[in-house]
Amino acid sequence: MAQPGGLARSGLSAGRWPALAAARRRDVPRVPFAIDGVAVGSVATAHLGALRAWPQWLAVDERGVQLIATDRDSALAVINAALRAQGLILAWRDETYAIVTRLGEPPLALIERATARFWGTLTFGAHANGYVADAAGRPTHLWIARRSLSKATDPGKLDNLVGGGVPHGQSPFEALVREGFEEAGLPAELMRRAVPGRVIDVACDIAEGFMHEQLHGFDLCLPAGVVPINQDGEVAELRCLPADEAIGLAAGDAMTVDASLVTLDFALRHRLLAADAQRRLARLMRQE
User: Fold this and answer.
1) 118 near 208, Cβ under 8 Å?
2) Within this chain, do residues 185 and 244 fall inside the same structural domain, yes or no?
3) In terms of residue numbers, what domain contains 149?
4) What confidence tier does 277 reach under pLDDT thresholds 50, 70, 90?
5) pLDDT tens by residue, 217-230
6) What is the CA angle 61-62-67, rounded to 5?
7) Residues 79 and 131 occupy one common structural domain
């Protein structure tokens, strides 16, 4: 079982939470990106010059960028392919995301997943804290994944048992069930036992642009004999760690930012931290 002493050594008691700082980082000047007068994202001011190449589709000035194309999907596909060729869009995925202002609304346009960071549009993530509990139901261990070195983003970083983006046409829970088999070999009937946690809003500058993502965290209690096995080659290894060790990793910088936030939120909700760290982290997490 997690013990406060181990958590103190992790840096939690010293107030070190690099993921919280990273989730707030905004050091790139940006202007709004809008469709039909509705703000749906933002673009870096450094890219306004490049976007002026398509006056038939984009209205660009120092106050912002408006998509004025009639066929939005086609126009954005052409623009994004050109921006990719210029090196302004990174980590192409060949996955379709929707441009929306909130979960579940009809899409204003459809785009390639990687381009969401360039345009700063809202995306959604689904992550599962896979854990093992004692007889009283208290978490004792967490399953932690290490991302493959071939991943387009955060290669080699530690991650939650299951974590992935939510593509167009799926809900966060549906995406979680699908990712559960792909990343951990867990059948749908087991993944559907996952219990919703908290939705964490992240809005920050990253290497690929601007990340505005709502992270849907879930808790999945795994029987002690279940051993997850990656199926899609995107996970290098899966380890079952004592809860205090896993939370200590989330308190440092070994994990991806989103996995750290989801893990720390798990620790808060299950009250796995020493009392002082619990209070301070709860206060900081409310600011996300």
Assistant:
1) yes
2) yes
3) 4-20+123-285
4) confident
5) 999 999 988 999 99
6) 40
7) no
pTM of this structure: 0.91
**Segment 31-51 mean pLDDT:** 97
Q: How far apart are CA 277 and CA 4, in angstroms?
A: 9
CB distance 246 to 142 below 8 Å: yes
Identify the CATH number of the domain in which residue 142 sits.
3.90.79.10
The pair of structure tokens assigned to 126 is: 């689904």
Both 153 and 80 in a single domain? Answer: no
| Alpha-carbon distances of 46 from 22, 49, 51, 198, rounded to whole Å | 21, 7, 10, 35
The CATH number of whichever domain residue 44 belongs to comes to 3.30.750.160
Could you tell me if 218 and 194 are in contact, meaning their C-beta atoms sit under 8 angstroms apart?
A: yes
Q: Are 141 and 241 in contact (CB under 8 A)?
A: yes
- Pairwise CA distance, residues 26 & 112, whole Å: 24
